[in-house]
Amino acid sequence: QVQLVESGGGLVQAGGSLRLSCTTPGRTLSTLNMGWFRQAPGKEREFVAAIQWSGGSTYYADSVKGRFTISRDNAKNTVYLQMNSLKPEDTAVYYCAVFVTGWRIPPPRNPHDYTYWGQGTQVTVSS
Fold this sequence. Notes:
It contains no helices and eleven strands. By secondary structure, it is mostly beta strands. A hairpin with a 6-residue loop joins strand 4 (33-39) and strand 5 (46-51).
């Protein structure tokens, strides 16, 4: 079992930035392939980005490419999602998740392929 805890969400104006964090209390995440998803009201959960366990490879949804950056610090047991140039359509609950299959390009983008999930953190971008 892997517990995931997200933080860093909030309210920001369009064009602003936020950095989300995801930690795994009581367990190292250094061997885990991780992803970020988001879910807006009335919409399906959608893939945002993923990062290989080593940090050596990343992958992004087209909608966030060039604006968001996924990274990790395994020494701090934390995965980050740096979000710049935020738009109102980025408003959603953001979730970090773990997939236990091997890393590949493209990584899994279906939520059903992810085994462990955090509780989510709300990001609201005002226009």
